[in-house]
Specification:
The chain is α+β, with helices and mostly antiparallel strands. It contains seven helices and 17 strands. Bound molecules: 2,5-dioxopentanoic acid and magnesium ion.
Length: 274
């Protein structure tokens, strides 16, 4: 079952049909302990007359958005490379191997853009990339309730200059995209599920890459447990699980680029660069 937040309320897609889900709003539904049962009940009601994909919003209201980093070997290597002048190699290697993951605050709902909307490059960044990531929706009890697609927009030059600049490299207006839906499931995603990234510039594909969840070094449940250690999230929370796709060092995003991220079983998230 795929849950959509839209300008006309919340809908669930099930076996090719869409159903309206009764809820005060997204926050009330997502923080509810009976989320799954309520959505399941909606699929036993009447099929919605029509569903317009243009009405789809980012699946977030007051949930905080957090992110894990350096959870794929590709990301470890990219971080070591970009921070070599700052002497960064050692700590990225150490966090990749450590029991405690890297977790950082990424966005409030206000900074998140939905499908079809513009993500941004920082005005003071020279080297920017999208990071296509599996994102967990975690309920207030700490249990994984579902999965969505995220783009953790990043300024690699700022992050590489000094690791203490990470919040500036990662958190700014339009630095985060989520959507188009939340795949509701309490089961783990299959390790064979693929993540694909394609970047199109003036009609030409200028980057494409892929990975699978088999390359994700950490168990999503373990990431959720660390996030909930001494922190509560009464409205639920989104947690990016890290990127396993990093374009080569010569690549930087440009205004007008279209970014496609696809995760098997969830769907496709499309955004353009402002
Ligand atoms: O350590 C920097 C952040 C890395 C990151 O966002 C990722 O690996 O996805
Ligand atoms: Mg990331």
């Amino acid at each position: 079952m795929k849950l959509y937040r839209t300008t006309n309320g919340v809908f669930v897609e099930h076996q090719g049909n869409f159903y309206s889900v009764a809820a005060l709003d997204w926050d009330e539904l997502v923080s509810s302990t009976s989320l799954l049962a309520r959505v399941r009940a909606a699929t036993e009601g009447e099929v919605a007359g029509s569903f317009d994909h243009k009405t789809v919003l980012a699946p977030v209201m007051s949930q905080e958005v957090w992110a894990a980093g350096v959870t794929y070997y590709r990301s470890r290597n990219a971080r070591i490379d970009e921070s070599k002048d700052a002497g960064g190699g050692d700590f990225y290697d150490r966090v990749y191997a450590a029991e405690r993951p890297e977790l950082f605050f990424k966005a409030t709902g206000r900074r998140v853009v939905g499908p079809g909307k513009a993500v941004r490059i920082r005005s003071d960044a020279k080297w920017s990339v999208p990071e296509p990531e599996l994102v967990l929706l975690i309920d207030p009890t700490g249990a994984i309730a579902g999965y969505t697609i995220g783009n953790d927009m990043s300024s690699r030059d700022i992050e590489g200059e000094n690791p203490l600049y990470l919040p500036q490299a990662k958190v700014y207006d339009g630095s985060c995209a989520l959507g188009p839906c939340v795949l509701l499931s309490t089961e783990p995603m299959s390790k064979t599920a693929g993540i694909q990234l394609e970047i199109v510039r003036q009609g030409n594909v200028v980057f494409s890459g892929s990975t699978t969840l088999a390359e994700l070094k950490r168990d999503p449940k373990e990431l959720a447990t660390f996030l909930f250690r001494d922190s509560s999230f009464p409205q639920g929370v989104f947690l990016f699980t890290g990127t396993g796709i990093v374009p080569g060092n010569e690549f930087t995003l440009a205004s007008g680029d279209i970014i496609w991220i696809e995760i098997d079983g969830i769907g496709k998230l499309e955004n353009y660069v402002a």
